[in-house]
Amino acid sequence: MPHNPELLLQFSGRFSTQGPSIPICKTCRLSLQQQRLASAAAVSAGHPSPIEPPPSGAALPSNTPSASLRTAYRVKASVLLSRPPLITRDLTPFEKSYFLYQRRLNERLAMPFSRYFYYQKGTPGDVEWKRKIKERLTPARDIGVYNAYAKEGWNDEVLVGANESEPDVQVDALLKDAEVEGLTGEEGQEVKKHEVEKPMPRITEADRIGDTKSLDRNLQRTLYLVVREGKEGKWWFPNDVLVGKESLHTAAERIIVQAGGLNMNTWVIGNIPLGHYIYNFGTAMEAQDQSEELRGEKFFFMKGRIMAGQANLADNKLGLTDFQWLAKDEIQKTLTPQDWNGVKNILSER
Predict the structure, then answer these.
(1) Which partner for 228 in 7, 22, 217, 322 could form a disulfide, CB atoms 3.0-4.6 Å apart?
(2) Given this model, what pLDDT does residue 186 score?
(3) What CA–CA distance (Å, rounded) separates 3 from 245?
(4) 165-189: average pLDDT
(5) Quick check: 76 and 296 in contact, CB under 8 A?
């Protein structure tokens, strides 16, 4: 039977719930059922049936817009201005033990130290070398007392409670070895020493006093700039409404200058935001131009880096009263739970 919709409509009255009175194919039957469903849906929606023409006096639906205000969100650009880690993180106990074991294993596998290749016999350097090798039993200066060629040379792992794997102990051993200036006499003569410049500590003065405005703290972690909006306002990241056709990148650069001043060497990375956060108001509020009803704010976060300088809120144009440089776990304690849930996945763990 041909699949003609007009022909199917002519046969539509000849079908009953008990089945068709004449045989038709399955495809034609499905097409007929679909047209019946479409007609029923159009009638229930208040529209004329596609089979029957609309009444001549029926009123057409109006396309006039509603008189109520249009709901919208205020779009804002926000800057995640950060200072990256300046030093490596602290080693775990397993890593400390592993690295010491590797250095001791290297002593076992390497060729023996050629003493007379570096020191002429009987010279002050040779005398000093014999004194050092007698104390530590190995040419290496930072693996503790260990002889790779003795009977106990196989026992090169760190014992429980030993401190040879601690970085501070290794640094002290290297400094002690470097303090010797040299000898001018025979063996046993007093050694002349001079002070050696020590490396800077990993814990700074700002860490000890808890100065959260300083960038010289928490050197192992990424610090983010958070600001307080108003005297009793909440802590949040620097942000502002987009002006005109301003892009997110341009807005981020403007916000940094307006919030923290010109005494910062910064870099806004890329043109695509790291993420966005939607903040809904408790009750909708009318916009200033009275053309729409604001349901909340949408923040688009741009990534930025500070390479030098410091924030200064003295002449800021965003109404900010205070600032802090905080790590991720510190930000969690500062922000509200709702705000924290919106940004926690875009902040760096380190």
Answers:
(1) 322
(2) 52
(3) 55
(4) 71
(5) no
Dihedral sign, Cα of residue 243, residue 248, residue 252, residue 253: negative
Residue 223 and residue 296: Cα distance in Å, rounded? 28
Per-residue pLDDT, averaged over 67-89, amounts to: 87
Length of the chain: 350
Given a contact cutoff of 8 angstroms between Cβ atoms, the answer to whether 85 and 308 are in contact is no
User: Nearest to residue 256, comparing CAs of 313, 200, 214, 186?
Assistant: 313
**SS3 annotation, the chain:** CCCCHHHHHHHHHHEECCEECCCCCHHHHHHHHHHHHHHHHHHHCCCCCCCCCCCCCCCCCCCCCCCCCEEEEEEEEEEEEEECCCCCCCCCHHHHHHHHHHHHHHHHHCCCCCHHHHCCCCCHHHHHHHHHHHHHCCCCCCCCCCCCCCCCCCCCCCCCCCCCCCHHHHHHHHHHHHCEEECCCCCCCCCEECCCCCCCCCCCHHHHHCCCCCCCCCCCCCEEEEEEECCCCCEECCEEECCCCCCHHHHHHHHHHHHHCCCEEEEEECCCCCEEEEEEEEEEEECCCCCEEEEEEEEEEEEEEEEEECCCCCCCCCCEEEEEEECHHHHHHHCCHHHHHHHHHHCCCC
- Give me the pLDDT at residue 12, please: 47
Q: Which residues of 67-83 are buried (b: 16+ CB within 10 A; e: fewer)?
A: eeeeeeebebbbbbbbb
pLDDT value of position 344: 92
Q: How far apart are CA 316 and CA 323, in angstroms?
A: 12
- Compute CA distances 202 → 63, 70, 100, 167, 266, whole Å: 69, 56, 21, 11, 25
The overall average pLDDT reported for the chain is 79
Please compute the mean of the pLDDT values over residues 114-143 and round it to a whole number: 80
Please give the Cα distance from 298 to 6 (Å, whole number).
53
Prediction pTM value: 0.69
Report d(CA 226, CA 300) in Å as an integer.
15
Residues 131-175 have pLDDT tens digits of 888 878 887 878 877 777 777 777 777 777 788 888 888 888 888
